[in-house]
TrEMBL record:
InterPro entries: HTH_LacI, LacI/GalR-like_sensor, Lambda_DNA-bd_dom_sf, Peripla_BP_I. Keywords: DNA-binding, Transcription, Transcription regulation. It comes from the Bacteria. It holds the Pfam family LacI. It comes from Ktedonobacter racemifer DSM 44963. This is Transcriptional regulator, LacI family. Residues 10-66 form the HTH lacI-type domain. GO terms for molecular function: DNA-binding transcription factor activity; transcription cis-regulatory region binding. The keyword Electron transport does not apply.
Length: 341
């Protein structure tokens, strides 16, 4: 079978011809070596034309030539949580601009992945890692990951990190509810033993104490990060003899359970129950009324993680440490407590 010209794969020569530059210029752009050699305007034009023509570099040939793959592993604990998908999207978009590919690795319950990490790094099958809410195995030699990994929503000595301002976000949520006159504020907590959720718990307790409010164990209910478990936990809160007037949820996924529990009782949100979440993904805008929640800039977080990792590839004098600010987005799920309107 003779193939027509239109079926021929697009090459760097084709891109160069259409962009009016040399083939070596195209190679420099896609190798990430154009800085100082090719003007930013020309780089953008080459990338635009390459995208328009559907050009994809020959990664197999490049790997043999340069000795690396330009593959970054995005490691997460739970593939079903939409938060990680949103961060991954930002990471993928940014990596693509720098000619890197991102693959997803979900650890699930298996934390013994040191051998996989070591094999991947020593064989150059993976260039680096973005560890999103995942810590390295406790017995791992961090020198293996130094300059090759960025940890997100966690910190680890020796690794570059992007931390979320969980304390500030939780404070904003609690102070919003207190400002509306709520004093019986329950905590629908994630039953996950990681620092990001421990920070939410500590800050919740501290905000109560600052206002002289007694911490009552009955006003804290724990649930797995899924709506079914959250519904069971929220039911316990709403069936108390003195139910809360507001619930602070560790995650928007848990807020779904709070909404469902309120609906079972015929309660109106927010007139009879104010609800605040944490995350601000599609869930927050899908719920009715739309959810007041602490917004995590997921796409920007993924973008920044890749930027820090690529910078570490070049030179790492000291691990990079950065705190990402969070903000409360007030929507329709919160209002003044009855009698304070």
């Amino acid at each position: 079978m003779v193939r027509g010209k239109e079926s021929r794969s697009i090459t760097s020569v084709d891109v160069a011809r259409k962009a009016g530059v040399s083939q070596s210029t195209v190679s420099l752009v896609f190798a990430g070596k154009a800085s100082g050699r090719v003007s930013p305007q020309t780089q953008q034009e080459v990338l635009r034309i390459a995208e328009e023509m559907g050009y994809r570099p020959n990664t197999v040939a490049r790997t043999l030539r340069l000795g690396h793959t330009n593959i970054i592993a995005f490691v997460i604990p739970d593939v079903s949580n939409p938060f990680f998908a949103a961060v991954l999207k930002g990471a993928e978009q940014t990596a693509r601009l720098h000619d890197y590919t991102v693959i997803l690795v979900s650890t699930g319950e298996d934390q013994e992945w040191q051998r996989v990490v070591m094999d991947a790094l020593t064989t150059h099958s993976i260039e680096g890692f973005v560890l999103c809410a995942v810590r390295p195995p406790g017995d791992m030699d961090i020198a293996i990951l130094r300059s090759r990994a960025v940890i997100v929503d966690e910190t680890w000595t020796g690794l570059s990190s992007l931390s979320l301002d969980i304390v500030g976000g939780t404070q904003a949520a609690m102070r919003h509810l207190f400002g509306l006159g709520h004093r019986q504020v329950a905590h629908l907590a994630a039953d996950v033993d990681v620092e990001t959720f421990r920070q939410r718990q500590r800050t919740y307790e501290q905000e109560l104490a600052l206002r002289g409010l007694v911490l009552e164990a009955r006003y804290t209910a724990r649930a797995a990060l899924n709506p079914a478990s959250a519904l069971q936990a929220a039911r316990k809160l709403l069936h108390l003899s003195e139910p809360p007037t507001a619930i602070f949820c560790d995650d928007d996924l848990l807020a779904i359970g709070a909404y469902k529990a309120a609906a079972e009782l015929g309660w109106e949100v927010p007139r009879q129950l104010s609800i605040v979440g944490f995350g601000d993904g599609l869930i927050a805008q899908t719920l009715a009324p739309e959810l007041t929640t602490v917004a995590i800039p997921t796409a920007a977080l993924g973008k920044r993680a890749i930027e820090v990792l690529l910078a570490d590839f070049e030179v790492l004098e000291q691990p990079h440490s950065e705190v990402i600010s969070l903000e409360l987005r007030v929507r329709g799920s919160t209002t003044a407590v009855a009698g304070n309107a």
